[in-house]
Amino acid sequence: MSDPHRQTFLQQLSDEQSLPPQAEAELDLQHNTALIPLDDRVVLEVRGPDSDRFLQGQASASTAHATSTIAPPAVFCTPKGRAIANAQLIKLSPECYWLLLERSIADALHQHLGKYAAFYKTELTLRDDLAVAGLAGHQVGNVLENTVPELPQAMWGVRVSADEELAITRHPHDTMRLILIASHDRLATLFKTTSAELTLAPAALWQRLDIEAGLLWLDELQREKWLPQMFNWEALAGISFKKGCYTGQEVVARAHYRGQVKKRLMRLSIPGNEALTPGTDVMDATREKSLGEVVLSAPTTGDHVELLAIMTLKEDMPPLSINGETAQLMTLPYALERLDPETLSD
């Protein structure tokens, strides 16, 4: 559904001289509102009369949790419980859902779900024609108040326009941050009216906010490497332990109830000013033994790089190092315990 001649929303803003000024990843979000093109995200659309029943048998979240105000996180697994992709489940209409996920893994999920979709009255479409953009900052609500009648306020909250062509969802972080999904024309029109109050920022800023939120979106490098609990998905309301069966459910549930998860997503910081290569080892500095690997990183202020790593749990964590630099464990903004998606509300 992609048109090679279509202008992106940024190109349209540039042509109309409405493009916001460019900023670095260290933008002060207390006083500025960042506009961040999220070209690494894409929508996989599930449409048809059986879409609800189809997704119910595949996603870790119940379709009953996807409402007009909540778009729950979900994960799609192999029969052995390994995560193929995690996504956000946005209900556009009774017969249409948008799965928001990392672009590099979208084809793999499309192919995986396609094996099961053949038995349902539902169609899967990668919506390359849709634009995905992030807004972040404490003033986001004020910036949009005259153009969007109602915004989501809670984690994983969502609002869908009456014409079902625009979805706005709030992602975890103390700073308000929204993802907007619509056609490039629709987003260009929306941002044109607010461009004077926006600052264009790089994707590295959004990555840093994901790291601060302890939130990992699996990419192709991570496909089928981890159980969902290893990237703390149940602590972010990404797994329902009360719904019926879905592919991989038995393994995921067994790991939860038997306490068999020995690896977890952790947040760390090291000196430096360049992002690390995914897969870089996190070492036990006293024994020169790998305890895990970096999965996401982004430079931050003060010549430091913050990162997420999936690591083996230890009762007493030893001193850590990455590429010879001392690594400091940082606090996650949530407890490593189950958060039931049934409790989400907005």
TrEMBL record:
SUPFAM superfamilies: Folate-binding domain. One of its GO terms (biological process) is iron-sulfur cluster assembly. It comes from the Bacteria. NCBIfam families: ygfZ_signature. This is Uncharacterized protein. It comes from Kushneria indalinina DSM 14324.
